[in-house]
Amino acid sequence: MTGAGTVRHDRQARAVRLGPRSVAALVLVSAVGVAGFGWPLLAPPEASVNAHSQDAPWLFAGVLVLMVAVVAATISESGLGPKAVAMLGVLAAAGAALRPIGAGTAGLEPMFFLMVLSGRVLGPGFGFVLGSVTMFASALLTGGVGPWLPFQMLSMGWFTMGAGLLPFPDRLRGRAELLVLAAYGFLAAFAYGAVMNLAGWTFMNELASNIAFDPDASVPDNLARFVAYCLATSLGWDGGRAAVTVVLTLALGTPVLKALRRATRRAAFEAPVAFERPAKQPPPRDRAADGQ
Fold first, then answer.
1. How far lies 93's CA from each of 27, 107, 148, 161, 180, in Å?
2. Are 22 and 75 in contact (CB under 8 A)?
3. How many CB atoms within 10 Å of residue 270?
4. DSSP letter (8 states) at residue 285
5. pLDDT on residue 69
6. pLDDT tens, 10-63?
7. What share of the chain is helix, strand, coil (3-state, %, to 5)?
8. What are φ and ψ of residue 261, in 5° steps?
9. What is the distance of C-alpha 289 from the center of its chain?
10. Which pLDDT score, from 0 to 100, does residue 44 have?
C-alpha cells in the first residue's frame, strides 16, 4: 500500500550499525585487549615486559577501562538512539539480575544464554556494548568490582558480539538456528573461561605451583602450564557454564528470540523512513466548458 505518509521499514532491524569510526575503535580496543590478556604467551622470556609481570595486568586493566569507554561512546555516535538505549537498559538489567541467581556456583550462570540470544538478534555492535554494560552492572549489583572488572567487561563484550557475527541472521530460523546458537554458546563459554584465566594466571607465584606463569620460561612451556592450569582449576566451572547455556538456549530460545525480534520491529531501530508522493491526479474538468 502506497500513498502520502506511507512508511517502509527494513525486514531485519539492528540497534546499532557500525560505521568506519566504530569499527576502527572496536578493532583498537580488541587489539589492546588481546595484548592485555595474552602478553604472557606473546612475550619471549627476554622481553622487558616480563620484569613487570605482576603489575602489568593492573596497567592493562586501567587502559581497558578507557578503551571500552571510547568504543561505547563511538558506537553511540553511530546511532544509539533513545529506543536502543531503552532496550540496552532493559537487557542489561535482566542480565545483571540473572547473574546472582546461580552466584557462579559450579558455573551456573544463566546470564550467558541471554547474551547469546540478544547478540544474535540485535547485532555485533549492540552486542559488544550490551555485554560490557551488563557485566559492569552485575559487578555493581554483586559487589564484584575490582581490577578484574575491565577484563570481564571486554570478555563479555566479545562473547556477545560473537553471537551477532554468526551467519545468516535474516534467513536462519527454527531448530537449525537454536542448534547454531547452542553450539556457539557451548564453545564460547569455554573460550570466555580461558580468556579470564589469562587475567589471573600471572598473579600466581611460580614457586607455589608448577602450573603457574614463569617469566623465565619459554612461550611453549608457559602455554603448556596455562593449559594445565585451565584443566586443573576451571574445567568443571566452564563445563557447567557451557551446559547451562546450551540447555537454556534449546529450552527457552524460541520464545526469547521471538520476543526480542518483536520488540526490535516495534521499536524500528534505525529503520529508514521513506515518504512516497501520491500519484498525480488530473486537474478537474470544467463542466461549463464541456457543456459549450
1. 27, 20, 21, 18, 26
2. yes
3. 18
4. P
5. 67
6. 455 555 666 677 777 778 777 777 777 777 676 655 555 455 455 555 655 666
7. 70, 0, 30
8. -70, -35
9. 72
10. 59
